[in-house]
């Protein structure tokens, strides 16, 4: 997987200052799911889509100061909601793309697995079982990983999204943003705070990495830029103390949706996008 240069989240201000001046003429559109919309991060400016004005697209917009900024991201969105309506108040996200759009950030794919269902399933199976791998066992059959298959199946769907963006906005720079670290990268767990069995912690870590690998492959295949937010968020996973974590656990300690980036996580996502744009 191609690795991009990393700017720590605490240096987001410096990254904003360093943003290229020519971005002032940019027409920027953001599309994606709840990891893009910033679900329950204050301030929520679109409750049906749990969209925050402190999500990473908003922070990127503050940095590059585009001539026009449209955030169509919506919590719960799948690849199908790029061309189909998700809720009455959120028409297809592609509707915001124009011929003169010059920058598009995309954060999609997790809900196509769907990853939220996986986390709930694994937490339920591990609630009373600190040891073992009940989640991996559940998704395995005759040594075959069904969850891995689901993740790989996301690839063609994301590729179609990226091609759809390019078709509608042929002059746009297309940036696909990956998913951050959720479980500790060293394979440990934090049961019972996060009820994932010790054998399932590295399994779920690797599933997240697999999803990011799939996304990076699709970006490379169509000439889009892939932004890795995993590497920069190692050490800030759901098991870390509230002041350190960038992704909340099943019971959040900071304002954010469960198993979603908090405000610090959004700042890191923005920092990585700004680094790619610089």
Task: Please describe what this structure looks like.
There is one protein chain. This protein has 278 residues and is an alpha/beta fold. Helix content is 36%, strand content 12%. It contains 9 helices and 9 strands. The protein has helices at residues 12-17, 34-37, 56-64, 115-126, 134-138, 146-168, 200-222, 230-233, 263-277, and strands at residues 27-32, 44-46, 51-52, 68-71, 103-107, 140-141, 144-145, 173-177, 225-227. It has a 5-stranded parallel β-sheet, with helices on both faces. A two-stranded antiparallel ribbon has the order 2-3. Strands 6-7 form a two-stranded antiparallel sheet. α3 crosses α9 and α6 (146-168) packs parallel to α7 (200-222). The longest helix is centred in the middle third of the chain and has 23 residues, at 146-168. The radius of gyration is 18 Å and the shape is globular. The model is unreliable at 1-22 (pLDDT under 50).
What is the H-and-E element order? HEHEEHEEHHEEHEHEHH
* Rounded average pLDDT: 92
Sheet with the most strands?
A: 5 strands, parallel
Helix content: 25-40%
Structural class: alpha/beta
Q: Say how many strands there are.
A: 9
Largest sheet, spatial ordering of strands: 4-1-5-8-9
Spatial separation of the terminal alpha carbons: 20 Å
The general outline is globular
